[in-house]
Write a structure and sequence with these properties.
heterotrimer; A mainly alpha (315); B mainly alpha (295); C alpha/beta (337); A: 315 residues; mainly alpha; 13 helices; 79% helix; C: 337 residues; alpha/beta; seven-stranded mixed sheet; four-stranded antiparallel sheet; globular
Chain lengths: 315, 295, 337
């Protein structure tokens, strides 16, 4: 087990390094001189040189890269060339907002997908099962922002229960806060749930066809009891892996949803940064997202080894 | 990934190239339904090249925000542009981005995957890890990053989506190739003196073709989703080129007064994505009916 | 004539109807297209050790699954299977049958490697069969009894084994666990479906001894399904020969194996008796192959492969006789008209 852990961590670190090089390299090829952008066209060469020294863009790329990575490890994401503000604090401020959406979305996704997928599998020979699966197929084809707009049309326009956008700080007004994140979280969660439920259904079917399910019934359990007692745990193992893989899609959806609902989270920061060609900002956020994805994958990988007893002892 | 759950990797077996299958249309509703929806979208794009009621970019403030009428079948938008014309023309971008993205993804991914399968362990491992690295970069993120660098355009969108989907093709190509390499045709070919390139061309490619086509269809759907999202965010095709995502972005503020404006582009996007997803399912049914999960 | 069979030599005393454990009457198993098992009837008593033999596809596994209520989707069953005292297994609801499974009627399957839940400890799985049927049992008590059961099936260090996961045990050990689970509630009928086929030959003999010992101790009836005739003579005293979904011959081991009356049984015995084949002699076979389901000939199911078939075989023969019964118009020993 320890060997596997060590190996996996090594791969993780190597991948992180490679990713950071990729991200940095990508945004280092941005045409244009940040110093020029900051000072304007009619600046003197001396002023430009001075600005470059200030911004640090006159150093060789490798040094810039190392200083960037080194800074990030301390939480210092550098100072934006465009806004002249430190990037780090902005990111973390917006991150707190986004976290609500991500965690809420994941919760909703699991709460919906697992019962949905299991039911679809248990009903697979009934008409209701086919209808359920069909509905899920259609749901998967709906992009997140369209679902969001549909929900807005229903809950904000028609019923007027919820606001069509905006963000309220939870401490200030808890009720309004909940109302403002209800639809975003619901949207993110349902979109994830649609795809996740398909995996749950597959995993459930796989389990239902195992011999040990037949043994369980031969012991005196009915179909459903056998599944709950023996099948469920075995279903969760592959599902867990998929949940980890889904985190990428979750993050992407969150970015889009923040735009739909005017929520000042990371997505908002990223989009603005990109529009303004604020490369350092974009660099920092992309790196953060990639890190989260890689960390989640690592955790899932290790967790998988712990949860499945067959994998535990053999390492 | 070594911890892929069995049901994700074990399912799609390779297709034997020597046994062509007849297309059982009546047995696969997914195939028919998917095919029809896609045909509809293609039709829209094709028609738009020959005729649209109005020039989609034609701005006419006098007739703005009108509902459906005889002159404007689906009404007009905030700038007086004909919705129907924009809907038809928007199909072009959708299909173009999908096609190029899938092409790029396959062209990068498949050779990498095959290479990973046939080469020495350490080369294979490095290739795989590099491919896995790409998986940490979702299409949208890449597209936004590209947009930050070069300014958003159809091209950046296509490239980004293509690069982001390459790892999926690579993995599929790799596992498919490994399966073919495990058959008896391959050692027989080697004994006969054939090299790796011949084996790849003669045995691997025809047999993984089915797998790849299925994945292409699914990826097309993903590409359409991504493109519409990007257009909605403003990082896809820039205006005034009509695109469904952009239409939706402009229609959203008007939800209270003109909900129908949002409906058409939304429906078009869902139809396109659904079509490709269903086609992918139908193709899967065709290539291996044993995968019927209604057991 | 009633549906009675011969006295099992394992019982010294005269059998009474109180000893009857299972009465199967005209059981027919079918899908929507065709019959898989037709008109099967037999009786089992306490202490009986009956083998149900036949090739793959003869319907023997389906028969046992039908009794347990574990038929796959799309397969239905008609007829009666009365488990003493008085419960018809074939018409009871899932809930009622579930109460009997693992309790009064148990089954051991063919694949020990996949029979147990890989994520639960072995002891807990054995204890479960006790608590399912006796809610009042405490966890500690069921655990204790589970360890005892594991000892009874001769597993080494039962306490340690109880804490193990299935993948830590060998195939033979896992099969013992399954047997322990099956016998835990002292069922009146134990069905074994090829329990030793997947095991090493050296382990097979031990397993058979164990099954025999368990069954004798609890005076359970044993229905042992197999295609291996050598195994049959080791553990059973009566035999039911099945072909094409029907019983073609029944009787004691001596009667059926020494003086087979059905041509199929004779063929089977000859095929198994390769020890007596001389050098350069062809191995004995039954001509033709087993037809797939639904493609058996009308009338006598064996007639397309039988050298003794005549026109009268176009009608389906019924099981005829008293102790040693055969379903054939021209049994071995009779002249063909």
């Amino acid at each position: 087990m320890a060997r596997h852990l060590g190996k996996r961590t090594l791969i993780f670190v190597a991948t992180m390094l490679a990713a950071s090089v990729l991200v940095f390299g990508l945004l280092a090829v941005v045409p244009g001189d940040p110093a020029q952008v900051a000072l304007g066209i009619n600046s003197t060469p001396e002023a430009l040189a001075q600005m470059r020294a200030e911004l640090g863009t006159d150093r060789p790329l490798v040094i810039q890269y190392l200083s960037w990575v080194g800074g990030m490890l301390h939480g210092d994401f550098g100072v934006s060339y465009i806004t002249r503000q430190p990037v780090g604090p902005q990111i973390f401020e917006h991150l707190q907002v986004t976290m609500w959406l991500i965690l809420g979305g994941m919760l909703v996704a699991m709460l919906v997908a697992i019962p949905l997928g299991v039911t679809a599998a248990l009903w697979r020979r009934r008409a209701s099962g086919t209808i359920l699966s069909g509905a899920v197929v259609v749901a998967i084809a709906i992009p997140s922002f369209i679902l969001a707009i549909m929900l807005i049309a229903l809950f904000a326009v028609r019923l007027q229960w919820l606001p069509s956008g905006g963000w309220v700080i939870p401490a200030e007004d808890p009720v309004k806060f909940v109302k403002s994140i209800a639809m975003p979280v619901l949207t993110i969660g349902l979109i994830q749930a649609a795809l996740l439920s398909r995996y749950v259904r597959s995993a459930t079917l796989e389990v239902l066809n195992q011999d040990y399910m037949r043994t369980a019934r031969a012991k005196g359990l009915t179909h459903n009891a056998a599944f709950v007692r023996h099948g469920l745990r075995n279903t969760m193992i592959p599902v867990l892996t998929v949940v980890g893989l889904q985190v990428t899609a979750l993050l992407v959806d969150t970015i889009i949803i923040e735009k739909v609902f005017f929520i000042p989270g990371m997505g908002d920061l990223l989009l603005n940064g990109a529009t303004n060609r604020d490369t350092l900002m974009v660099q920092g956020i992309v790196m953060l997202i990639v890190t989260v994805v890689l960390v989640v994958n690592l955790v899932v990988d290790l967790l998988y080894n712990v949860i499945d007893p067959r994998l535990r002892s053999s390492r | 990934m070594s911890t892929d759950p069995a049901f994700l990797t074990a399912e799609t077996p390779i297709v034997e190239a020597s046994s062509p299958r007849r297309w059982r249309w009546h047995r696969s509703p997914s195939l028919v339904a998917g095919g029809s929806l896609i045909l509809l979208v293609v039709l829209m794009a094709v028609i738009s090249y020959f005729w649209t009621p109005y020039d989609p970019t034609d701005v006419d403030p006098a007739v703005r925000l009108q509902g459906p009428s005889v002159e404007h079948w689906l009404g007009t938008d905030a700038l007086g542009r004909d919705v129907f014309s924009n809907l038809l023309t928007g199909a072009r971008v959708t299909l173009l981005v999908g096609l190029i993205s899938v092409g790029v993804g396959a062209l990068i991914g498949v050779p990498l995957g095959i290479a990973a399968a046939v080469s020495r362990p350490w080369v294979s491992q490095t290739t795989q890890r590099s491919v896995d690295l790409l998986l940490a970069f979702p299409a949208l993120l890449l597209a936004i990053a590209f947009g930050a660098i070069w300014g958003a355009s159809t091209l950046t969108a296509m490239l980004a989506i293509g690069i982001a989907t390459a790892p999926i093709f690579a993995r599929l190509a790799r596992s498919g190739t490994l399966q073919v390499l495990a058959t008896e045709y391959v050692p027989a070919a080697r004994i006969a003196g054939h090299g790796t390139v011949y084996i790849v061309n003669r045995h691997v490619l025809p047999n993984i073709f089915g797998l790849l086509i299925i994945q292409a269809s699914v990826t097309f759907g993903i590409a359409v989703l991504a493109e519409s999202g990007l257009s909605y965010l403003g990082f896809g095709t820039p205006p005034p080129t009509p695109s469904w995502g952009l239409m939706l972005q402009q229609a959203q503020p008007l939800l209270y007064s003109q909900p129908l404006l949002s409906f058409w582009p939304a429906a078009a996007i869902v139809v396109a994505v659904l079509g490709f997803n269903l086609l992918g399912d139908g193709l899967r049914d065709h290539y291996d009916p044993r995968l019927d999960d209604r057991r | 004539m009633s549906v009675t069979d011969v006295i099992s030599p394992a019982q010294e005393s005269t059998p009474t109807d109180a000893d009857v454990v299972l009465t199967v009457e005209s059981m027919t198993i079918s899908t929507s297209h065709y019959d898989l098992v037709r008109d099967v009837s037999f009786v089992l008593r306490r202490g009986d050790r009956v083998a149900l033999i036949g090739e793959s596809g003869s319907g023997k596994s389906l028969t046992s699954l039908a009794l347990m209520g574990l038929l796959p989707f799309g397969v239905s069953v008609k007829g009666k299977a009365i488990l003493a005292p008085g419960r018809d297994l074939l018409t009871s609801s899932e809930r009622d049958v579930a109460r009997l499974r693992g309790n009064r009627i148990s089954m051991v399957f063919q694949e020990p490697l996949t029979a147990l839940n890989p994520t639960k400890r072995v002891g807990a799985q054995v204890a479960e069969v006790l608590t399912i049927h006796d809610r009042s049992l405490s966890r500690a008590e069921s655990k204790k009894r589970a360890v005892g059961l594991l000892g009874e099936v001769r597993l080494p260090s039962p306490e340690a084994t109880a804490e193990a996961y299935p993948h830590q045990l060998s195939g033979g050990q896992r099969q013992r666990v399954v047997i322990a689970m099956a016998m835990a509630n002292k069922p009146s009928l134990l069905i074994c479906d090829e329990p030793t086929t997947a095991l090493d030959v050296t382990v097979q003999a031990q397993m058979l001894d164990l099954i025999a010992a368990e069954v004798v101790r609890e005076r359970s009836a044993l229905l042992f399904i197999t295609h291996d005739l050598a195994v049959v003579s080791g553990i059973c005293d009566r035999v039911l020969v099945m072909y094409g979904g029907t019983l073609v011959e029944t009787g004691t081991i001596q009667q059926v194996f020494e003086k087979p009356r059905h041509p199929y049984t004779l063929g089977l015995l000859e095929c198994s008796d390769i020890g007596n084949v001389g050098p350069h002699e062809a191995l004995p076979t039954i001509r033709g192959t087993v037809p797939s389901a639904g493609k058996f000939p009308a009338g006598c199911v064996f007639r397309n492969r039988c050298d003794r078939a005549t026109d009268s075989c176009q009608t389906m023969p019924k099981l005829d006789g008293v102790a040693h019964r055969v379903a054939c118009w021209h049994p071995i020993g009779d002249e063909i008209a």
